[in-house]
Amino acid sequence: MSYPLPTCLTLGFLIRLLLVVCGEWQDRTMLVKYTDVDYYVFSDAARHITQGESPYNRPTYRYSPLLALMMTPNIYLSPVFGKVIFILADVLAGYIIYLILTQQGTPERKSLLCAGLWLFNPLPITVSSRGNAESVMAVLVLSTLYCMIRRKTKMAAVCYAISVHVKIYPITYALAIYLFLNSAYMCNTGKKQESNSILQINLRSLWLNEARILFILTAGMIFMGLTAVCYLWCGHTFLQETYFYHLTRRDIRHNFSVYFYMLYLTDETEHSFVMGLLVFLPQLVLLVIFSFKFYRDLPFCCFIHTFVFVTFNKVCTSQYFLWYLCLLPLLIPSLSLQWTQAAIMVLLWFFGQAVWLAPAYYLEFEGANTFLYIWIAGLTFFMVNVGLLQRILVAYRVPDRKEKTL
């Protein structure tokens, strides 16, 4: 029995809203708080704005000032306003997943099942109801993909520029999007080119065309406009906290990154800055290769990009997983996997995290020196992710779908 889309969306929202209400009760009555610490950072930054100050007066606020501006109703109306916005965005992300799949010709029932994997996934449900803003990024990235598939170049460029402004990681999609805006895109037929070989990419296919120029100019103007406004508002602090910090960030506290222990041990050395930049090299090489290989199926390519970026990044926390999990439902129609294989892959992914969480707990709460064990656990999780990536690439089949023509 399948439920209609409005029922699924309403149920998904009500589940999240219930958790928001229960979370407020837990925050007031229990020692362990439900609300994400970042939510307090957002709210404090919003409070500074209402007082005529910079949101960056709040230590550890390292986001666009527009996010803090969006949170100002937390001060004027209710402290849970931001959480309601985030859970609405989370449900909207599920709806856009459905739209993308149906636009690509996926049967409606399968599209609804795939969207349900996001709408009723405990991880995004918990993260959004705790007050984390990742659902906003999910909406922006998915909106970009939907507009690209619909050949709405200007709107896609606007969504893409805003997404890069809010969080810089979607910049990794730039080459794939550029390649996607080729002659087949301009013909607006919805047909995919058969060749999937990097060697068959000729120089002519890299030349600028009308769609590429329109996308670059639109996205560039929107991004530069937002940057100029925020710079005039908050000065160089905006650039430092929103962009430069994330490019040069070297988080030596424990996290899932395979590089964490190396950066921890070399933190005070003269080569630490260079080493922090060199770890970007594997990401860069893989992103370029996968861009040329899979750009024709843009949602799949963006998932692979995000998965590679998160797995090979020098800082990796659990909220980063949502960056690619929101794209995962878009892959399912293109993967040749049995349910047992998919279940084993999911279990391995959770197993890799559980192996890491055990020594991390003893370090965080017991004060035990478990850095070496955390690094070994990080290597284990890294190998699990690389294995999952390899399995996804093997299971991928170029979808024989007919996109809806416009």
Description:
The chain has helices spanning 5-29, 37-50, 65-70, 73-76, 81-103, 108-119, 122-129, 134-149, 153-166, 174-180, 183-187, 210-234, 236-248, 260-265, 272-278, 280-294, 298-311, 321-325, 339-366, 371-395. With 406 residues, it is mostly helical. 37% of the residues are buried. The longest helix has 28 residues, at 339-366. Helix 17 (298-311) packs antiparallel against helix 20 (371-395) and helix 19 (339-366) runs antiparallel to helix 20 (371-395). The two termini are 32 Å apart. The radius of gyration is 22 Å and the shape is globular. The chain contains 20 helices and no strands.
Which labels suit this protein?
67% helix, mainly alpha, 406 residues
Radius of gyration: 22 Å
Order of SSEs, N→C?
HHHHHHHHHHHHHHHHHHHH
What percentage of the residues does DSSP assign to strands (E)?
under 5%
Task: Give the integer mean of the pLDDT values.
Answer: 87
